[in-house]
């Protein structure tokens, strides 16, 4: 080969190598981060077993479980990894420190958001850094907008309980889209030491429009706004959206998490812009698991996964520019697939008749039952037929949860009787230690109903709190960027990988 020709080949090779390298390093323009609060592999498998059953298959047949229509969007993604969830000083993290790990890239104490363990230095989140680089930002959650997980993307506070302070910081972010639940404490301090601002005034002063009807929020799809806060019309508990099982049956004027995600995508997408970062939290998967209610969990898992579906739809139109990452922050409830009473069998059809969440039942039917019966039954709290003799309550158990009292064994009936007395009269013949183990901080009769129902299906619960198992991560999108989410790593690495995917500065970044 002549020298001239050889030189030309070398130059060409270097040019190709450079192009290939830049292709690998090129950041993703549109980035989605989906966070199922309290979601680990049990929540995922239980939901797929339920889907298989509700679609007419059997949760005990591999051929049915493996059918694509019985699988979640997330578990069909091409890249999978797993992350450790512990925080700086706890094997079982809380949602504030885990959200800080995902958003800022370092470990801190439970309860702390966007600050170090000493609670002296504040750090920028990947959302803030992306916004500074010209990306639009959307923060969506099924719980209140000032709750720990969303807060970690825009606020720094020494304690997650300062929710007025958190909302105050939200109002000055300049982020383009907030959507989901409302505010826990919009007009005063949430607790001592908190700020006392009127959040509505601050939002208006900073150019935000607040929308809170289904029609006005959906209208954003065709007429986007620059800065908008979308709050669902009905908020169920602690300013959160209703459980999806309740939205479907009772509050159809609300948006699902999936619909809210769709609105955010339409609002933030701009072909000529620098792209967006959207964080979507399925926050009540966690709350349902704290309460040990499998069907409320599964309902919110399905809505969360449908939200992932909205992002996948967007990905199909922009495959080279999009990255989607889905994970949980920790497992909640110690949920498991299998139970001592069912061994290797599973009966997910037992779950099909539950019509409301534990919360809806407590707020409505239970409240009415207690008002009607407490006065007559509680003087005889030691009587062993307060529940057995209450035909109305037995009907409610059957109609709302699909739990047929007549078919239960004596042990289950006794557990229900004890729980009923504790709920109705705040007293039963158990020791305090027994009651703590059996009910946690939840309504005894309702948590006992869901325990028995879930156990019949073969779903077990071991805690009313978070647990410390590692959590799966799923990714799809821009090939080389998505691939970085394969492997076993720490939760702080997720923030670093996302920062890398958006070409942000190395984390952590001080404010
Ligand atoms: Zn959490």
What do you see in this structure?
- The chain is of the alpha/beta class.
- It has helices spanning 3-25, 41-54, 62-65, 95-104, 126-132, 148-151, 163-171, 199-205, 214-218, 244-250, 257-268, 284-290, 294-317, 358-377, 391-401, 410-425, 432-439, 444-457, 479-483, 491-501, and strands at residues 30-36, 79-84, 123-124, 136-141, 177-180, 209-211, 228-231, 276-282, 322-328, 331-332, 336-337, 459-460, 466-467, 471-477, 487-490, 509-510.
- It has a ten-stranded mixed β-sheet with strand order 6-7-5-4-8-1-9-14-2-15, sandwiched between helices.
- Strand 6 (209-211), helix 9 and strand 7 form a beta-alpha-beta unit.
- Helix 4 (95-104) packs parallel to helix 20 (491-501), helix 11 runs parallel beside helix 13 (294-317) and helix 16 (410-425) runs antiparallel to helix 18.
- The chain is globular.
- The N and C termini lie far apart (57 Å).
- Residues 18-23 have low confidence and may be disordered.
- The structure holds zinc ion.
Features:
511 residues, alpha/beta, Alkaline Phosphatase, subunit A, 2 domains, ten-stranded mixed β-sheet, two-stranded antiparallel sheet, 20 helices, binds zinc ion
Oligomer state of the chains in this structure: single chain
Assign the CATH architecture of the largest domain.
Answer: 3-Layer(aba) Sandwich
Strand order of the largest sheet: 6-7-5-4-8-1-9-14-2-15
End-to-end CA span: 57 Å
CATH topology of the largest domain: Alkaline Phosphatase, subunit A
Ligand kinds: zinc ion
Q: What is the number of strand segments?
A: 16
* Shape descriptor: globular
Name given to the CATH homologous superfamily of the largest domain: Alkaline Phosphatase, subunit A
């Amino acid at each position: 080969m002549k020298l001239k020709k050889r030189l030309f080949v070398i130059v060409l090779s270097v040019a190709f190598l450079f192009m290939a390298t830049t292709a690998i390093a090129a950041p993703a323009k549109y980035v989605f981060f989906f966070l199922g609060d309290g979601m680990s592999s049990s929540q995922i498998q239980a939901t797929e077993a339920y889907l298989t059953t509700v679609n007419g298959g059997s949760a005990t047949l591999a051929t049915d479980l493996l059918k694509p229509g019985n699988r979640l969007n997330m578990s069909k993604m091409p890249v999978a990894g797993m992350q450790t969830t512990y925080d700086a000083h706890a094997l079982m993290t809380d949602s504030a420190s885990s959200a800080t790990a995902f958003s800022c890239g370092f470990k801190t104490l439970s309860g702390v958001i966007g600050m170090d363990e000493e609670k002296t230095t504040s750090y920028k989140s990947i959302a803030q850094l992306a916004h500074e680089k010209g990306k639009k930002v959307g923060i969506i959650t099924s719980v209140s907008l000032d709750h720990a997980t969303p807060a970690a993307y825009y606020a720094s506070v020494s304690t997650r309980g300062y929710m007025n302070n958190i909302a105050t910081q939200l109002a000055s972010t300049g982020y383009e889209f907030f959507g989901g639940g409302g505010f826990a404490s919009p007009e005063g301090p949430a607790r001592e030491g908190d700020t006392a601002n009127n959040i509505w005034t601050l939002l208006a002063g900073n150019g935000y429009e607040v929308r809170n009807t289904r029609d006005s929020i959906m209208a954003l799809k065709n007429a986007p706004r620059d800065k908008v806060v979308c709050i669902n019309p009905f908020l169920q508990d602690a300013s959160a959206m209703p459980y999806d099982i309740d939205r479907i049956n009772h509050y159809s004027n609300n948006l699902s998490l999936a619909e809210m995600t769709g609105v955010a995508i339409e609002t933030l997408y701009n072909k000529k812009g620098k792209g967006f970062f959207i964080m979507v939290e399925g926050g009540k998967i966690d709350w349902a698991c704290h309460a040990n209610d499998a069907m409320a969990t599964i309902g919110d898992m399905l809505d969360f996964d449908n939200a992932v579906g909205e992002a996948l739809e967007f990905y199909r139109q922009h495959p080279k520019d999009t990255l989607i990452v889905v994970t949980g922050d920790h497992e909640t409830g110690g949920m498991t697939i299998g139970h001592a009473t069912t061994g290797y069998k599973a009966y997910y059809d037992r779950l099909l008749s539950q019509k409301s969440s534990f919360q809806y039942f407590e707020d409505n039917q239970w409240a009415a039952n207690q008002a009607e019966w407490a006065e007559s039954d509680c003087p005889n709290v030691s009587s062993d037929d307060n529940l057995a003799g209450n035909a109305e309550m037995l009907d409610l158990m059957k109609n709302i949860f699909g739990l047929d009292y007549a078919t239960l064994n004596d042990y289950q009936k006794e557990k229900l009787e004890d729980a009923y007395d504790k709920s109705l009269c705040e007293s039963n013949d158990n020791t305090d230690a027994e009651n703590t183990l059996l009910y946690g901080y939840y309504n005894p009769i309702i948590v006992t109903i869901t325990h028995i129902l879930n156990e019949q299906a073969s779903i077990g619960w071991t805690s009313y709190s978070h647990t410390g198992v590692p959590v799966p991560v799923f990714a799809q999108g821009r090939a080389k960027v998505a691939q970085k989410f394969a492997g076993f790593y720490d939760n702080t690495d997720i923030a670093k990988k996302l920062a890398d995917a958006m070409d942000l500065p190395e984390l952590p970044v001080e404010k």
